[in-house]
Design a protein that fits this description.
Length: 330
């Protein structure tokens, strides 16, 4: 129900034209206001704090839908921030920074913060502590990637407040899980666009989707898209407030691994039209590559999965895969 309601708003406001306008510096307020006024920012906020108090599995399709529409705003991150801080989060757009570097003088720096150039606040993991930072007091530097709102933010020591708690890792896990879901959603959209194009594009008297070589590429692509969707669902399968550590690691690693193949296959099957700025495909494949690197690529998360396997006693790899992601591993 919530997913359908949000998708209805996204269809009206998060159009490709609106996304391009925001990327070029246009106002993001119409899209943000439409989502905020609908009350969806409090989906994960406990009922005791005035929220809907929904569980992670229920909200997971919402995060995937945001990727399917290439939403250029930190809406998912703001939902997570309110889940972690309840009503302590001020108004406006809040993003997540999974890792901050503290300098010797007490200043902070967060590299490649998602939507760092647009946000009002940053909920950050600072040496394992949960810290809410005012983005308006930060020095912002864009990441330099075309169309990206990510940036490197730095704060002087005087602008760094005290920590809320020692639950800083929750920011990293939430951010990684959100990016895994966004990748899965974008992949679903890219696969749909590619399949439609292959059915519509004719060559030698028939659609190119009927050629065996093209069908083979589409089938491999479909397998990776389906696997990414299941992995993203795994990240939000826990019963707690924060995504499970190992499940998140598996999800982020698997979705990130699929990005190069899915993106390259989509562009290859689209041919010359697929690389043009006017065609919508690049709105999604660019973000897939960006989200792949956000919070660490598959190399970072695969190492975490490997360490979990090696430090636990399992009779077989199958036993590990069947039980560990659901909270039975350290």
């Amino acid at each position: 129900m919530f997913t359908e309601a949000i998708e209805a708003i996204l269809r009206d406001y998060a159009t490709p034209e609106a996304i391009r306008a925001i990327e070029k510096g246009g106002a993001a307020s119409p899209l943000w206001n439409a989502l905020e006024e609908a009350g969806f920012l409090a989906l994960l906020t406990p009922e005791s704090a005035g929220g809907a108090g929904l569980s992670l599995p229920v909200v997971a399709p919402v995060f995937t839908a945001l990727g399917r529409y290439a939403l250029p705003l930190p809406f998912a991150q703001s939902i997570a921030a309110r889940a972690l801080l309840h009503d302590a989060v001020p108004g406006g757009m809040t993003t997540l920074a999974g890792a901050c570097r503290r300098r010797a003088d007490g200043a902070l720096e967060a590299s490649h913060v998602p939507f760092g150039m647009l946000c009002d606040h940053v909920l950050a993991n600072v040496d394992g502590e949960l810290v809410l930072l005012d983005a308006t007091r930060a020095e912002r530097k864009p990441c330099g990637v075309h169309g990206s709102a990510a940036g490197t933010l730095s704060w002087r020591a005087a602008a760094v407040p005290g920590a809320f708690s020692s639950a800083g890792e929750a920011v990293l896990l939430f951010s990684a899980a959100i990016h895994a879901a966004a990748i899965a959603g974008a992949m679903d959209r890219v696969f749909g666009m590619t399949l439609q194009y292959c059915n519509d594009r004719s060559q030698f008297g028939k659609s190119i989707g009927k050629f065996q070589a093209v069908q083979h590429q589409l089938s491999v692509m479909a397998q990776h898209v389906a696997s990414a969707a299941m992995a993203a669902e795994l990240a939000f399968s826990g019963e707690g407030v924060v995504p499970e550590r190992l499940a998140t690691a598996i999800a982020k690693a698997r979705t990130s691994m699929a990005v190069p193949l899915v993106a390259s296959t989509a562009h290859a099957l689209h041919g010359a039209i697929g690389v043009t700025a006017e065609y919508d495909l690049q709105l999604f494949t660019r973000r897939m590559h960006e989200w792949r690197m956000a919070d660490g690529s598959e190399a970072f998360w695969n190492r975490m999965v490997g360490n979990a396997l090696l430090t636990q006693e399992y009779a077989t790899i199958a036993d590990f895969a069947r039980t560990a992601p659901y909270g039975n591993a350290a």
